[in-house]
TrEMBL record:
Gene3D superfamilies (UniProt xref): alpha/beta hydrolase
Pfam families xref list: DLH (PF01738)
Entry superkingdom: Bacteria
Keywords (A to Z) from UniProt: Hydrolase
UniProt-recorded name of the protein: Dienelactone hydrolase
InterPro entries according to UniProt: AB_hydrolase_fold (IPR029058), Dienelactn_hydro (IPR002925), Dienelactone_hydrolase-like (IPR051049)
Record's keyword annotation contains DNA damage: no
Keyword ATP-binding: no
PANTHER family: ALPHA_BETA-HYDROLASES SUPERFAMILY PROTEIN (PTHR46623:SF6), CARBOXYMETHYLENEBUTENOLIDASE-RELATED (PTHR46623)
GO molecular function: hydrolase activity
Domain (Dienelactone hydrolase) ranges: 3-121
């Protein structure tokens, strides 16, 4: 089903939720984001698109392009599965870009687990 959805429209829907929460009258205006798998990638993309985010907490999500790291202002709390080669192959260059751009982040690589480790059904 995910392959049938326009990825730009889908990302715009996630971004619309961020913008809604930023102006929601009963909220503080501060917005953080967390996501798992595809949502982890959304969290990373949101950190690029919305530098005013309070934080981003992606779990095993695709990293933002290294060329976009300079746009990130939110602190990041990143979670990776040690055995998740597909996602982890992007981690070393992404971490280098975070360091080169003096970004605030903490990263955890959980030993002996696969992608989806935070979901009991995987």
């Amino acid at each position: 089903m995910q392959q049938q959805v326009d990825p730009t429209k889908l990302m715009n829907d996630f971004f619309a939720a961020i913008e809604f929460m930023q102006r929601y009258p009963q909220a503080t205006g501060k917005v953080g984001i967390t996501g798992f798998c595809y949502g982890g990638g959304v969290s990373n993309a949101a950190a690029v698109a919305y530098p005013e985010l309070a934080c981003a907490v992606p779990f095993y999500g695709r990293q933002a392009p290294t060329a976009d790291v300079a746009k990130i202002e939110a602190p990041l709390l990143l979670h990776f599965a040690e055995l998740d080669n597909r996602i982890n192959e992007g981690w070393p260059p992404y971490e280098a870009a975070l360091k080169d751009n003096n970004k605030v982040y903490e990263a955890y690589i959980y030993p002996r687990v696969n992608h989806g480790f935070h979901n009991d059904s995987t």
